């Protein structure tokens, strides 16, 4: 059974930083593209950042220059370093693992709350 477990969320003041972690119980972690999504109340889930199995990264325009996604295949973990946080970054952040092989493999974590407020 594949599990993605996020951690690192919390309450932070505007301008502060947080680092989210997602540990994946996937034996073939290095073959998956990983991503972070977020969903604010009343809004659709949106892609925040993604990192391919070969390390190519992509970011939403709203977080470019502030957030950094990385992965450590030895630890089956993907990270999201979030700096210069803004109130509009407040959301539940979800980890996603996906690959297309013989079939589509698409897994989600349970989410971690990030609240940016003074």
Write a structural description:
The protein is mostly beta strands and 118 residues long. 0% of the residues lie in helices and 54% in strands. Strands 2, 4, 5, 6, 9, 10 and 11 form a seven-stranded mixed β-sheet that branches. Strands 1-3-8-7 form a four-stranded antiparallel β-sheet, with no helix packed on it. A hairpin with a 4-residue loop joins strand 7 and strand 8. It is globular and about 45 Å long. The mean pLDDT is 96.
Which helices and strands, and how do they pair?
Layout: E1 4-7, E2 10-12, E3 18-24, E4 33-39, E5 46-51, E6 57-59, E7 67-72, E8 77-82, E9 91-101, E10 103-108, E11 112-116
Parallel strand pairs: 2-11
Antiparallel strand pairs: 1-3, 3-8, 4-5, 4-9, 5-6, 7-8, 9-10, 9-11
Specify the oligomeric state: single chain
Q: Tally of extended strands?
A: 11
**Structural class, from secondary structure content?**
mainly beta
**Between the first and last Cα atoms, what is the distance in angstroms?**
40 Å
Q: Would you identify the regions where 5 or more consecutive residues have pLDDT less than 50?
A: none
Radius of gyration: 14 Å
Beta-strand content bin:
over 45%
Order of helices and strands: EEEEEEEEEEE
Question: What is the overall shape?
Answer: globular
What portion of residues is helical? under 10%
Largest sheet: 7 strands, mixed
- Give the mean pLDDT: 96
Number of helices: 0
């Amino acid at each position: 059974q594949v599990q993605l477990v996020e951690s690192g969320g919390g309450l932070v003041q505007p301008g502060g930083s947080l680092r989210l972690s997602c540990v994946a119980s996937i034996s073939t972690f290095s073959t998956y593209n990983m991503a972070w999504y977020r969903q604010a109340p009343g809004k659709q889930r949106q892609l925040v950042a993604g990192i391919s199995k070969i390390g190519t990264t992509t970011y939403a325009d709203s977080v470019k220059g502030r957030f950094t996604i990385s992965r450590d295949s030895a630890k089956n973990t993907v990270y999201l370093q979030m700096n210069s946080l803004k109130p509009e970054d407040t959301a539940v952040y979800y980890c996603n693992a996906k690959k297309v092989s013989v079939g589509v493999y698409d897994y989600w974590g349970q989410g971690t709350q990030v609240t940016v407020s003074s």
